[in-house]
Automatic annotation (TrEMBL):
One of its GO terms (biological process) is positive regulation of translational termination. PANTHER family: TRANSLATION INITIATION FACTOR 5A FAMILY MEMBER. InterPro entries: IF5A-like, IF5A-like_N, IF5A_C, NA-bd_OB-fold, Rib_uL2_dom2, Trans_elong_IF5A_hypusine_site, Translation_prot_SH3-like_sf. This is Eukaryotic translation initiation factor 5A. eIF-5A seems to be the only eukaryotic protein to have a hypusine residue which is a post-translational modification of a lysine by the addition of a butylamino group. Belongs to the eIF-5A family.
Length: 140
């Protein structure tokens, strides 16, 4: 063995298993696609022709499901886009961070402080998770 043996450990995640390809021309409003590496809900889709010998293009407007930022992309309708997979396994989750939304955070803290039985809704896509809603389910 030489002194310059190197060991590399990869901690990167390509996210390949968190998306699947779908032809751009088949993606509709209210679907979920990846725009600029971010999981987005499609809020607007328009298709246009570029000319006599051009290809039809799809213009997508999406809202990042975690940040709420508006993102746009234009893709030839025959090309594939990455579509974000959203899963709901129903398993109990106990390792979530508290939300940054002050109103939702206060409701959660106050509810647990009062001993209420609460259920939180969690949005999950592409390795990120976020508490997005709260429901008081009352006494058991």
């Amino acid at each position: 063995m030489s002194d310059d043996d190197h060991h590399f450990e990869s901690k990167a995640d390509a996210g390949a298993s968190k998306t699947y390809p779908q032809q751009a021309g088949t993606i509709r409003k209210n679907g979920y696609i990846v725009i600029k590496g971010r999981p987005c809900k499609v809020v607007e889709v328009s298709t246009s022709k570029t000319g006599k010998h051009g290809h039809a293009k799809c213009h997508f407007v999406g809202i990042d499901i975690f940040t709420g930022k508006k993102l746009e992309d234009i893709v030839p309708s025959s090309h594939n886009c990455d579509v974000s997979l959203l899963t709901d396994s129903g398993d109990t989750k106990d390792d979530l961070r508290l939300p940054t939304d002050e109103n939702l955070l206060k409701q959660i803290k106050d509810g647990f402080g009062e001993g209420k039985d609460l259920v939180v809704s969690v949005m999950s896509a592409m390795g990120e998770e976020q508490i997005c809603a709260l429901k008081d389910i009352g006494p058991k």
